[in-house]
Design a protein that fits this description.
By secondary structure, the chain is α+β, with helices and mostly antiparallel strands. The protein has two domains: 58 residues, no CATH class; 204 residues, Beta Barrel (Lipocalin), CATH 2.40.128.280. The chain has an eight-stranded antiparallel barrel with strand order 1-2-3-4-5-7-8-9. The longest helix is centred in the middle third of the chain and has 18 residues. The radius of gyration is 29 Å and the shape is globular. The N and C termini lie far apart (78 Å). This is Plastid-lipid-associated protein like. It comes from Actinidia chinensis var. chinensis. Its main location: plastid.
């Protein structure tokens, strides 16, 4: 009888594999994919081939199937973050505990989403984004972590919706704020929309720098027929050090409908496409 052909000079341990991933044939790869549904115990079993030589050979187990795909996991983390911040009136009603919960939920999403590279995905910034949360609004001022008018039921300024309008072709970056200004009785409140126009540039892979240009105010409601007017800009030599007219922030997560940023003063913001 001819000498049997040994499949392996020595028995292989359960952790051994027949070949490196780079040398697997497409047929073998397809075979392993079809076995993903098998149970864990079956995956770890050994198939002993002893027809001729009695040499034990390990059948390499296929990789375990994940419980859920990454996209599904990311979707669940997005929903968790939105649920945490949804009842906080964009951060104006946030307590210290709320701030910590929002920050933790954002970090989970950022970690799973991975690094953002806007140098290849700049088009993801394009569009009109609605602000649903800012950690800086918990300071109860419209300026967030920067100086700004205070808000409250007894004060004449009521914050409405806040948007960011980004055009990657013209590098326009507009912060759009809807406000309601109180008026003496018997006059109704005045509704206005303030557009803070900026230009932006990309710094590195995920950091954005914005430079302020002008503020335009347009009345709405009963006074919508009035033309917009521009608020004069404070000269640079009179501008306080805390208000330089420019700022930077990092985009820590972005997809087709959700964007998370962290500002140069530690401000966490969450946007959804509008």
């Amino acid at each position: 009888m001819a000498s049997p052909l040994l499949l392996s000079p020595t028995p292989l341990s359960p952790k051994s594999s027949f070949c490196s991933p780079s040398s697997l044939s497409s047929a073998t790869t397809h075979f392993h994919r079809r076995k993903l549904h098998r149970t864990r115990s079956h995956k770890q079993s050994l198939i002993r081939r002893s027809a001729y030589s009695g040499v034990s050979v390990v059948d390499p187990p296929p990789p375990p199937a994940p419980e859920e795909s990454k996209s599904e996991f990311v979707a669940s983390l997005k929903l968790k973050l939105l649920s945490v911040v949804s009842g906080l009136n964009r951060g104006l009603a946030a307590s210290e505990d709320d701030l910590q919960k929002a920050d933790a939920a954002a970090k989970e999403l950022e970690a799973v989403g991975g690094p953002v590279d806007l140098s290849v995905d700049l088009d993801k910034l394009q569009g009109r984004w609605k602000l649903i949360y800012s950690s800086a609004f918990s300071s109860r001022t419209l300026g967030g972590s920067r100086p700004g008018p205070p808000t409250g039921r007894l004060l004449p300024v009521t914050l409405g919706q806040v948007f960011q309008r980004i055009d990657i072709l013209s590098n326009d970056f507009d912060n759009i704020v809807e406000l309601e200004l109180g008026a003496p009785w018997p006059f109704p409140p005045v509704e206005v929309t303030a557009t803070l126009a900026h230009k932006f540039e990309l710094i590195g892979s995920c950091k954005v720098k914005i430079v302020f240009e002008k503020t335009t105010v347009k009345t709405s409601g009963n006074l919508s027929q009035l033309p917009p007017f521009e608020i004069p800009r404070i000269p640079d030599n009179l501008r306080p050090p805390s208000n330089t007219g420019s700022g930077e922030f990092e985009v820590t997560y972005v997809d087709s409908d959700t964007r998370v940023t962290r500002g140069d003063r530690g401000e966490l913001r969450v946007f959804v496409i509008s």
